[in-house]
Design goal:
By secondary structure, chain A is α/β, with parallel strands linked by helices. In chain A, 35% of the residues lie in helices and 26% in strands. In chain A, helix 2 (87-97) packs across helix 3 (102-115), helix 2 runs parallel beside helix 4 (131-143) and helix 4 packs parallel to helix 5 (161-176). With 235 residues, chain B is mainly α. Classes of the chains: A alpha/beta (234), B mainly alpha (235), C alpha/beta (272).
Chain lengths: 234, 235, 272
């Protein structure tokens, strides 16, 4: 079990002169399952991308203690990025990049496909999978390299109940296997089910950081209160 | 119109009586253009891929240049290659003038920009789609290029075929650097040109029809050879 | 499976079909004009020459201008052209040691049966040309600096005309070979000067016919020029000499004399 801290100070993300995020400061400690919670447009995706290193801040600093290498992190995008290959090849791709032999990669990938109930479709084009199947596939792909840290951007939006359940189970298992998770969502129920800590965002700023239980039982801020009660924030 | 019909009949006769001259020049056409296309692809596709994933200051200038070179009139290329390969030219010592090799060189120069440009455009689109994934995996430049080429192979074959099409129908450059020498550097297009200049329109038309048939055949063969069910379903 | 197919196609391409050479210096390169080649005489002379001397001739069929250019750059071993003035300049500039006259053929004036300028019954070339110009009937010129073109220009000049001042509404300079030029004349029912051989061989005469022939000015001298071995040491000057001797030999002269299209003689050997 690795323990690490991420400290962000005065971070600002802009995209062609409009402010997406910040200025914001935070300290993420004792990470296990961190939920970035907020409405659409709150800045969850921007923050996730910033943490993983996909985007750079305009100003401010991000400090990791200790630094976790990019290779030990994985990212699951809101729209899964699917390679134009079959399911098996998609899943073992990260292993091949790291120099794992093809035969080893195939057997490891097949184990994962069994776990996510997609083994029958191993040699089908990945693009032929349904939405839920695609997400399971990319999560398996993200976990196959045993990352220390997994980022997910709204992984179950638009999925039916059955798919949602399967994916949440996958994530719980990953947590048990030692992967720390930072996940963005606007689904209150999901946050309650999976999360241990919450970073609540609104309009590009951190509004409240606390444990899941505290957040839902005693929200400190007006925005949090409105949100928890199902209201809309402007 | 009767010329067209007569030409068609003559084409069939030449093919089915296995006219040796016809097979010789057809074979030569294929050899020259297929070799040129192969070389231009081996150079042009990685070049296009590299340009698609790179980000350096002169990149846009380079892309504009390559696109502009697509419009280079083949006969001008022929003239330039002739001046280089001529005995009075810098590369005269290699004795390449009036050989199929000179024709291949000229065609590579003509075809390369097309293949590089189409490859670049195709791969750039896919790269934009895969980009975040590559960054997330910390993939190396080389790994990125190989992955993109592999996943775009059907479109890249189309790029190569576009180059092939340009080459197989080209006549200006290879006429100058090849010399249209009977039994040595005569190909379908230069033969068509010759027969037209002699007024033998039926024969010219017949050769033209053979050329079209060959071109369709090659396209067909390449497409069934590189069928890929892994690309977009609605491709 | 797929890879196998690709490799098979590539191998077939290279080995079953006629092989090509990577470099070619073994054959004797002779540049001849299109009118000589299209007459069909080269198909008679060259194989005989190859057999008798024991060489292979790479024949490059190009316009006179290009033949002279190729020769001046040492890309061919000898040339056979029909443009005396240009040839003399060529020798003067040192590209060839001399010019050797081989044979001559003649040119004819072609026009449509309708003959809009009504020159059919005129017997004088000067008068004919003057009439065509004054009636502004369409006249097609090769316009490509070829031997034929230069001869045509000299005809106008001998008739006291200035072809460089001719207007494009009746005098068309097409910049093309004899066949293409005849084609345009045929489509436009125009007047044109052509060598007899190309005319006889031409397959789309349409409503065209010979309207005038026989004048001495219409005779066209072919000469053989070996390229200077001093300027270009790699030139096959020995073979060039052999070819020259063969072309003026009795055998060659007979082949030339006896070559006919539709019963008509085309070329007349006249080596000195």
């Amino acid at each position: 079990m690795i323990d690490f801290k991420i400290k962000g100070a005065n971070l600002l993300i802009k995209k062609s002169s409009s402010l997406l995020l910040g200025p914001m400061s935070f300290e993420l400690v004792n990470l296990s399952f961190m939920i970035l919670l907020g409405q659409n447009g709150a800045g969850k995706t921007s923050l996730l991308r910033l943490l993983h290193g996909l985007d750079s801040p305009e100003s401010g600093s991000l400090v990791w203690e200790p630094k976790i290498k990019v290779e030990d992190q994985s990212f699951v995008f809101q729209s899964p990025i699917i390679l134009r290959r079959n399911v098996l090849e998609n899943v073992f791709y990260p292993l091949i990049l790291r120099g794992v032999s093809k035969s080893d990669a195939i057997s490891i990938a097949k184990e994962w496909l069994e776990k996510i109930f997609l083994i029958q479709k191993a040699y089908e084009p990945a693009l032929s999978l349904s939405g839920g199947e695609r997400q399971r596939m990319v999560i398996a792909r993200a976990l196959i390299s045993k990352p220390k840290l997994l980022f997910l951007d709204e992984p179950t939006v638009n999925l039916d109940g059955e798919s949602k359940l399967q994916i949440e189970n996958l994530l719980k298992q990953a947590l048990r296997d030692g992967t720390k998770i930072i996940m963005a969502t606007h689904d209150l129920g999901q946050a309650k089910r999976l999360g241990e800590h919450i970073l609540f965002l609104h309009n590009g700023k951190v509004v409240e950081t606390t444990s899941v239980n505290s957040f839902f039982s005693e929200p400190q801020t007006d925005e949090a209160l409105t949100f928890v009660r199902g209201g809309i924030l402007r | 119109m009767s010329d067209l019909f007569q030409g068609f009949i003559q084409a069939l006769m030449l093919i089915f009586t296995i006219d040796s001259d016809l097979y010789a020049i057809s074979g030569r056409s294929l050899q020259v253009t297929m070799t040129a296309t192969l070389i231009a692809s081996v150079v042009g596709i990685p070049l296009g891929a590299w340009l698609a994933v790179s980000n350096f200051r002169l990149r846009n200038v380079l892309i504009i240049c390559i696109n502009a070179l697509m419009g280079l009139p083949p006969v001008v290329v022929g003239l330039l290659v002739y001046l280089f390969l001529s005995k009075s030219g810098p590369f005269g010592v290699f004795n390449l003038l009036f050989t199929p090799s000179a024709m291949i060189i000229a065609q590579v120069i003509i075809i390369l920009p097309i293949i590089a440009s189409i490859s670049h455009r195709t791969i750039r689109i896919l790269w934009k789609e895969y980009r975040d994934f590559f960054i997330s995996l910390n993939a190396t430049r080389w790994q990125i290029i190989l992955t993109l080429i592999k996943d775009s192979r059907r479109s890249l074959i189309t790029a190569a075929l576009a180059g092939f099409g340009r080459g197989i129908g080209e006549v200006g450059a290879i006429m100058i650097v090849g010399g249209n020498i009977d039994h040595a550097t005569r190909v379908l297009t230069t033969a068509i040109s010759l027969e037209t200049s002699r007024g033998n329109f039926h024969l010219a038309m017949a050769l033209g029809i053979v050329l079209i048939i060959l071109s369709i055949l090659i396209n067909f063969l390449m497409h069934i050879t590189v069928k890929s069910k892994y690309e977009q379903i609605d491709d | 499976m797929k890879k196998f197919m690709i490799i098979t196609i590539l191998i077939l391409n290279q080995y079953l079909l006629p092989s090509f050479c990577w470099a070619n210096d073994s054959n004797f390169k002779l540049a001849v004009t299109t009118s000589f080649h299209n007459s069909g005489l080269s198909d008679v002379l060259i194989p005989a020459l190859e057999k008798d001397i024991g060489i292979i001739v790479d024949l490059l069929v190009v316009g006179t201008g290009q033949a002279l250019k190729l020769g001046s750059r040492g890309d061919v071993d000898a040339i056979l052209v029909h443009s005396k003035k240009a040839e003399e300049e060529f020798v003067e500039q040192g590209f060839a040691p001399y010019r050797r006259e081989i044979m001559y053929n003649d040119f004819v004036l072609i026009g449509s049966k309708a003959d809009p300028s009504e020159i059919k019954n005129l017997n004088n070339l000067k008068l004919i040309l003057e009439t065509i110009r004054s009636t502004r009937s369409i006249f097609i010129s090769r316009g490509d600096d070829s031997g034929t073109h230069k001869l045509e220009l000299s005809l106008w000049r001998n008739a006291g005309q200035k072809p460089e001042n001719f207007l494009v509404d009746w005098y068309w300079e097409v910049g093309a070979g004899m066949g293409a030029t005849l084609n345009i004349a045929s489509e436009s029912s125009a007047y044109v000067i052509s060598d007899r051989a190309s005319w006889l061989n031409f397959g789309r005469k349409g409503d065209l016919e010979i309207l005038f022939e026989g004048d001495e000015q219409l005779f066209n001298q072919y000469s053989y020029l070996p390229i200077s071995a001093i300027l270009y040491p790699k030139i096959k000057y020995k073979e060039a000499r052999s070819v020259e001797n063969w072309l003026v030999s009795t055998k060659a002269r007979n082949l030339i004399k006896n070559y006919k299209i539709m019963g008509q003689n085309l070329f007349f050997p006249n080596p000195k």
